[in-house]
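Q: What structure does this chain adopt?
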Amino acid sequence: MITVKQVRRDAPWQWLRAGWQDFVRAPRVCLTYGAIFVVIGLVITLGLGLVGFSSAVPVALSGFALVAPAFAVGIYQVSHALERGETPRFLVIVSRIPSRISQIAFLSLLLLLLLLVWVRIAQVLLIVIAPYSPLEAGPFLNYLLTDAAGLTLLAIGTLVGAGLATLAFAISALAFPMLIDRDVDAITALTTSLKAVINQPFVMLTWAWLIAFFIGAGIAFFGIGLAVAFPWIALATWHAYRDFLPAEQAG
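A:
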């Protein structure tokens, strides 16, 4: 049985500060890692625009939040390396395969399943609520904000997306850093993450809102801000894990 430590109610702000300190200590690695996902996001956005399906961009961007913890595995290793007194280097970080790679893959597939569920739900909502909505980005946004059906689609889609994002957060908030740091299976890591959320809901919901804010702000700045926000939040997540499960308890 893994014991999850109680943390301070203001702990999320401390995690952000600690994450930023790690970012400053390894800026090239963090920015390079973050830039890769910015480029991927831009390619997807442009691709959807070229095929005339820009209205799917919000679904794709919100879906990123569901699977982002899995993509952040390399960044978690930056903080882990700094803990050991190592100098993080990009090629070393991305080539260092965690010993629990099969368990990480299992948990990643679980998040991917949630993403596929979200995409399917979004498709159904669009067909049922707003079958005649425009597919181009500008007209679609105007439709969402001015038409009754668009507002209904926006409200229901936001609620469903938030519910799935909350579930994804609850099962992965501590799970991926734990799989990198400890010799445990995915189910143990998942249940430990859930335990932290259940035991301290105020702290973890505050952390979830902060993650949503910073990732949203990164996306709002034409996605470029994500190159900073994504690795920063990932580094802070490592410190969240360490706060709940201190290093001296690590196996």
